[in-house]
Design goal:
Strands 1, 2, 3, 4, 5 and 6 form a 6-stranded antiparallel β-sheet that branches. The chain is built from 2 helices and 6 strands; from the N terminus they run H-E-E-E-E-E-E-H. By secondary structure, the chain is an alpha+beta fold. The N and C termini lie far apart (40 Å). Helix content is 25%, strand content 29%. The chain has one domain.
Length: 115
């Protein structure tokens, strides 16, 4: 695997957060005896980093994915998705906050809906 340095601070922080959260989701599933769990990945767009969630079963990726959240590339603001194309209005978290407290992030993205 070749390492490529992320261009933006928010992209690097998103990558670090997803690594921690993905490991946590997998460990929790194994410890509770489940063979399915969610995993997160990201895509970098023009203005936002789009985080996708998908289901894993027995180490294989299942079909389908859903938009989990959006992260602004410039300032690290996190938004809940209004659709898979655009975020909803109103900042929910900053990527720094989520990186400092990764236990906030749950598998379903419900932490983005609490206000």
């Amino acid at each position: 695997m070749t390492f490529t340095a992320p261009q933006f601070k928010a992209e690097y922080q998103t990558e670090c957060l997803l690594e921690v959260v993905n490991n946590e989701f997998k460990v929790n599933a194994i410890e509770s005896g489940h063979n399915t769990y969610y995993q997160l990945e990201y895509e970098v767009g023009r203005k936002y980093i789009k985080v996708w969630s998908y289901l894993m079963s027995s180490g294989k990726r299942l079909d389908g994915r859903g938009c989990f959240m959006f992260v602004d590339k410039k300032d690290g603001a996190c938004y809940k998705p209004a659709s898979y194309k655009a975020p909803a209005k109103g900042i929910r978290f900053w990527i720094d906050q989520l990186l400092d407290n990764p236990e906030i992030v749950d598998q379903y993205g419900s932490f983005l809906y609490v206000r």
